[in-house]
Write a structure and sequence with these properties.
By secondary structure, the chain is α+β, with helices and mostly antiparallel strands. The protein is built from two helices and twelve strands, in the order αββαββββββββββ. Helices cover 20% and strands 33% of the residues. The chain starts with a helix and ends with a strand.
Length: 215
């Protein structure tokens, strides 16, 4: 009788121990499943989820120029206004071409073109020396008078005039008058005074009259 009771107690103890061990194994399996994603050991392990290293890499779309434009549009950024059109240079220029000349002795002075640059006159001149000695026609001696009585000189800094005409030759250049012509002026005369040379015109000057002011 004692042996029977002892045997039952032994079986009950073994059953309890087995239940505890089973519970511990189940708990360890749950922890393993959560942390490692597998259940079991070795060949008997089963993978429950994909590990981080096997997961497909996420992609991030880089910002592009189109994105920037879209953002600007979203916040209502206004496009920059074009610069105002710059007036074309020389829009007020007027030109008269022809032949206005005067000869004295062996020297001929001819005006071939006049440019009106907003009231500033540029006069294109040809001088012909038909003598056997050179003549000097200095810029500083140039004078002009328009039909309103306004007088002018020639600009020493911007005029392009050689000043000396050698024997049996001609020169070309232009003279910039040093003042603007008034709107009422319609014509002017141009004078080379103080001409120097062995065979220079008597009185040392030549005047070309009736040169039109371009309008």
């Amino acid at each position: 009788m004692v042996d029977g009771s002892h045997h039952r107690r032994k079986n009950n103890t073994a059953l309890k121990v087995g239940t505890v061990v089973l519970g511990v194994l189940v708990l360890l399996g749950a922890v393993q499943a959560v942390t490692a994603g597998t259940i079991g050991v070795g060949a008997l392990s089963v993978t429950l989820r994909q590990t981080t290293s096997d997961a497909a890499p996420s992609t991030t779309r880089p910002a592009t120029t189109d994105d920037t434009v879209g953002l600007d549009g979203a916040v209502g950024a206004a496009e920059s206004s074009p610069s105002p059109e710059v007036p074309t240079a020389g829009a007020e220029d007027r030109t008269a071409e022809g032949s206005w000349q005067q000869a004295r002795g062996l020297l001929t002075v001819e005006v071939t073109k006049v440019e009106n640059r907003g009231g500033a006159l540029r006069v294109f001149v040809t001088a012909v020396n038909a003598s056997t000695a050179k003549m000097d026609l200095p810029v500083a001696s140039v004078a002009a008078v328009d039909d309103t009585g306004r007088d002018y000189g020639a600009s020493l800094s911007t005029s392009k005039w050689p000043g000396t005409v050698t024997k049996n030759s001609s020169v070309n250049g232009y003279l910039d008058l040093d003042r603007k012509v008034p709107g009422a002026a319609g014509a002017f005369s141009l004078t080379f005074a103080g001409i120097v040379g062995q065979l220079a015109p008597t009185g040392g000057s030549v005047t070309v009259p009736g040169i039109p002011v371009p309008r």
